[in-house]
Amino acid sequence: MIRILPEEVVNRIAAGEVVERPMSVVKELVENSLDAGATRIVVEVASGGKKLIKVVDNGCGIPPSELPLAFARHGTSKISSARDLEEISTLGFRGEALPSIASVAKVTVTTRQQGAGEGTSLQIQGGSLGELEVRGAPFGTTIIVEDLFYNTPARRKFLKTDATESLRITHTLMAIALANPHVSFTLIADGRETFSTTGTGSLKEAVARLFNPRLAQNCLPVEWDEGWVKITGLIGSPETARSTRQQQFWALGSRPIDSALLKSALDRAYDTYLPRGQYPFCALTLHLEPHLVDVNVHPAKREVRFREEQEIYRAVVHALRDALTKIAPKDLEVKEEPKPQPEYKPREFSFLSVGETQSVYKTAARAVQVLPKEEEEELPKPHVEEKPPEAAGWPEGLVVLGQAENLYIIAAGSDGLYLVDQHAAHERIRYEELQRQEEKHPSQLLLVPQKIDLGVSQTKALHQVQEELAQMGFVWEDFGSGSVLLRAVPVGLQSDPEEVLSDFADWVLSSEFKGATPWRRRAKVLATMACHSAVRAGAKLSPQAMAEIVEKLGQCQVPRSCPHGRPTMLKLSWSEVNRHFQR
């Protein structure tokens, strides 16, 4: 039997397409604020947006007579005919966001038009509209969304942790802020300000506030105009590249978008500047005539379809390569041919005495919720692999012959020739040293706490693994505005803690982090520390340093691979050599 679904069911189905999670609500409400001409937008969330989402703007407001229409399905002031869909210039246009949100949450909207003497308020619960009320209010609109999915518990159950949902909101609002540097954005999560931009119109200033001043200083401006397409924004110099795409932001006008085509063009532009697996920062905006793009291809409007894909691809590649050519030649030389490094020395820290350490550590540790002793003992300990047969049969008496390309150590033994990757080998050595050190003295307080600027997203990511980092020896607290105050580091750390924490945060933000066990997280921290403290590819080594690496590699539990799984050496047996020379 075919029947017409009730309006309540229809709205909830629509909500399933438009309102996937709290981040979706924030995105839709902020887009409405931008369409209303707001120059200042404040977003406040609690419990990852599950409990509360509040968006306050200073836009034009909504006329009292039209306020109920704003919550009617497909009620919109932004289009009036099918032809308008071909030239959409606003962020929202379907009229689905507000009714969809109101069908799965408790919503209160208060609005006051510019010049009006008073404001109007309306409450909606589960799609049911209350009565209009007159009340005092600032110019603009305030929308409060409480108890998201309270009437659809199955949807609520599948939401992630508060920290994860909050991180998604942060990343979404950052993308919108970068696409609209002329608007001031403030994000408050659980009573604390996460970030704030000034709205001066300076993209570089927005990058400095959302990430850190160092990244902003190492960005290259992009200005490309072919008439029909204009590309503007900032791209990171090669040395600022990361191991994930988390710091890549694209916009079409003032709309953040996701596009495989644009990502591919970015990779193509950097293909001679970066090694595989490294991704540059970008905050780029495309300006196109509305008829050249279709934004109505995705329920959440995340993806767009370009009508001239090949020409867009070409224009982006040319625009970025034009910007990259402005890098000083010496900068490229440093990236392509790393400078030789001196003999590695342990990083020097100012440490407290043992008595002072025990006293101050108790104070610093309050910054994190460290697991109780009995619970900590139940976690898997870092795994020390049994020495495999191949390690037991490690060739004795290897003689170091020299170094090739400042990359490989050449050694000879009774069974053949060996090429040893100096970075991978030293990384394996440092990894196992750190494993042993962790079991003895995991942490040492710094005499002077170190302020580290990581950026908003990375700091949020580290909050998800603060317990694991504390157990590994990193004790830190949030310093606000994307910075952390580092109070303690693992004993034996020979690398820059900022690089270690930044790389680990990138991993937390990647898909690889999902489902990682506590042991896997600990191993990742150790591997990151080992990587940053190992000798680099391109470093010229003394004969003594090469001999020491070869000797210590032979003493490792797993000498044939680095902690990331790359081989440490290549063996060419004497029989293979003789066969090649037809002996």
Summarize the structure.
The chain has 583 residues and is of the alpha+beta class. The longest helix has 19 residues, at 422-440.
Walkthrough of the structure:
The structure is a single chain. The protein folds into 3 domains: about 5-195, 2-Layer Sandwich (Heat Shock Protein 90), CATH 3.30.565; about 210-335, 2-Layer Sandwich (Ribosomal Protein S5, domain 2); about 355-570, formyl-coa transferase, domain 3, CATH 3.30.1540.20. Helix 14 crosses helix 18 (about 520-535), helix 14 packs across helix 19 and helix 17 (about 495-510) crosses helix 18. By secondary structure, it is α+β, with helices and mostly antiparallel strands. It is elongated. Helices cover about 35% and strands about 20% of the residues.
Set out the fold topology.
Elements lengths: L6 H12 L3 H14 L4 E7 L5 E6 L39 H7 L2 E7 L6 E7 L2 E2 L3 E3 L4 E7 L6 H5 L4 H18 L4 E6 L2 E5 L6 H8 L2 H5 L1 E7 L3 E8 L11 E5 L2 E3 L2 H10 L12 E7 L4 E2 L10 E2 L2 H16 L4 H8 L17 H11 L8 H6 L10 H4 L6 E6 L3 E6 L2 E6 H19 L3 E10 L2 H8 L2 H7 L2 E6 L2 E7 L7 H13 L8 H16 L9 H12 L14 E5 H7 L3
CATH homology group of the largest domain: MutL, C-terminal domain, dimerisation subdomain
Radius of gyration: 28 Å
Query: Into which percentage range does the β-strand content fall?
Result: 15-25%
CATH topology of the largest domain: formyl-coa transferase, domain 3
Helix-residue proportion: 25-40%
Major sheet: 9 strands, mixed
| CATH top level assignment of the largest domain | Alpha Beta
User: What is the tally of beta strands?
Assistant: 23
- Which structural category fits the helices and strands? alpha+beta
